[in-house]
Amino acid sequence: MLQRSDQLDKVEQYRRREARKKASVEARLKAAIQSQLDGVRTGLTQLHSALLDVKDIQGSLADVSKDWRQSINTIENLKDVKDAVVQHSQLASAVENLKNIFSVPEIVADTQQLIEQGELLQAHRKLMELECSRDDLMYEQYRMDSKNTSDMNLISIYFEDVQGLSDELAKQLWMVLQRSMVTVRRDPTMLVSVVRIIEREVKIDRRMVDRKKQSGFIPPGRPKRWKDKMFEVLEGTVSTRIEGTQSVTREADKMWLVRLLEITRKYVLDDLIVVKNLMVQCFPQHYDTFNRFFGLYHNAVSSRVKELAAEDLEANEIVSMLTWVLNTYKSVEMMGHPDLASECDINALEALLPQDVVDDLLSKYVKTFTSNITGWLRKALETDKKDWQKETEPEADQDGYYQTTLPAIVFQMFEQNLQVAAQIDGDFKEQVLKLCLKQMNTFLIRYREEAVTYKEEHLRDRQLPQCYVQYMIAIINNCQTFKESINSLKRKYSQSSEPTDSDAAIERTLSEVAKEGCQFLLDEVFLDLEHHLYELMTRKWLTGSHAVDTICVTVEDYFNDFNKIKKPFNQEMTSEALRRVVVEYIKAVMQKRITFKNADERREGADRMIKEANQFKFLFRKLAAGEDTDRLCGAIAAIAEVFKLTDPTLLFLEVTTLVSKYPDIREEHIQALLAVRGDASREMRQMIIGTLSENKVTYSAVTQPIFKDIAVPTITNTMTSMTSMATAKLLK
User: Fold this and answer.
1) Global pTM?
2) Would you identify the family this protein belongs to, as annotated (predicted)?
3) Which of 45, 144, 351, 534 lies 20 to 30 A from 202 at CA?
């Protein structure tokens, strides 16, 4: 507190403050001690007063005990008085009910008439009078002599019509309750009267049960438990209402279940709105009327849908059922309707169907759907196959590409089923999508087989079908349409973007079908070109054949139709056509159909080859064959340069140039070229092959090979063993 010398001036101030604090603490301690002392003083005073009171009470109890012992004999002398009092009570009761006793037949008749007239409240009032008279007489008789059954039976016989009236009145009450939905609209006072009567009976039942606990007596027919019976009647009414919604059967109407569920939805919603707006006002608040009816309707609907689920439902009916149960029931169209939302919590409702029943229905649907979709796909393919035999061209899409209706039919089928599955559940939608893709893969395998069969049938008679080329183009285009449609379905109905095994299989099968279709079309082209290809590199060709002109015209004519093929297949097909044309041309060279006799023939043949290579180049550039056009056509020109060379000493350089451009060329190819040239000696051939083996060119797999698939006919090999070994090294 005192850390610096300048604070010494405040010492007196600190001393006074501490003195005040000390005085305050002492004052509080004194007050607390005084309060404790006052409390102790008060407690001692009260204890002293209580002791005096206890002594007074003890004395009073002693006086009471003394008086009681003196009055025992007096009480025994009053037994006769007690019996007289009981008899007087019975007689008083008899006198009180005497009027009612004599008028019982008249009251019974009046009550019966009131019941028939629908005056239920008045009828019940008279019934209560009769029952009250009967019960009082029986009670007094029971008190007087509980073992005297003859008197009891006498009273029961005299009042035997009362029980009949009670039953008749109850029957009228139940009839009103059974028609409560109609009654509450037309005459709500009638329903209110019924509820008032039942409430009266509940009170009487409670009073009689309490009296039984005290005396052991309860009147006949009690307790009536009309309140419990009322709820049973209402439950039966609701159940009957729900069960009565089926107006047609499957035999009469294929949409019977949809109609049944829609009628049920409408009835339940309308009835619950009536309950909320009208019925609640007719029942006491403690009945919790709306929630009670809400539960009754829920239980009735649940029982009904369980019965329907146990029937042999068809696939579309299973979907309708599950869609209604899982979605419609709790939606705003039914139990979640805005008019009901303020009165109930739909999330607290139990499921209409147990999960195992739902799973069984889904399993049954999947099984049926699998069977159905297999049949649908088979029929769709059979219909498409019939179209392949038509004499008219297939339809074209908006871009002019040939197509058939098969993809549209198949994916419309898938789309419809997926839309239905999506209404049921997201997971189930995914399951159906996977099933569709699995069936699609199986279907495409069959589609591929049918396309092969279609081609084989055509080859047996190439005149039939007349539109073979056009429909094969449509088959190829369908593959692209299938691929696009599958991707569209996955984007729309699948939440997962991960590829599946089915995706890879479908992609692979579609590619195979399309590639085979393109191959079939090219086979068709080359069947027409076969005769003209045989003319290449022959004497007839050298002297002025128009084979290549015809080949170009034929290819261009076919590709006018092939323009109807979608990308990327048209591009791939054009490139393959170019490759096959070049390969067939080079095959003609390698087959040594001609051997040039002199330099003039070699020059003339080479010029012709270069010209024809340019023709091919011009044609396939026009057809947009791609970047390999120059390289492929250049192979023909490069071979021509080998033939055209006039100086044999430079032949090695020309061959080396050819090998460097086309490294897949083999020894037998070079031998064939030198054989066609006709002027290469054995020594020159050996020198060329040997030198090339020492300077072999590495083959790059990136470049599409030309000579790899070109076989050379077997010839007598007169080369030495050394030359063969050198050639083998070159070919590695």
Assistant:
1) 0.67
2) Belongs to the SEC6 family.
3) 144
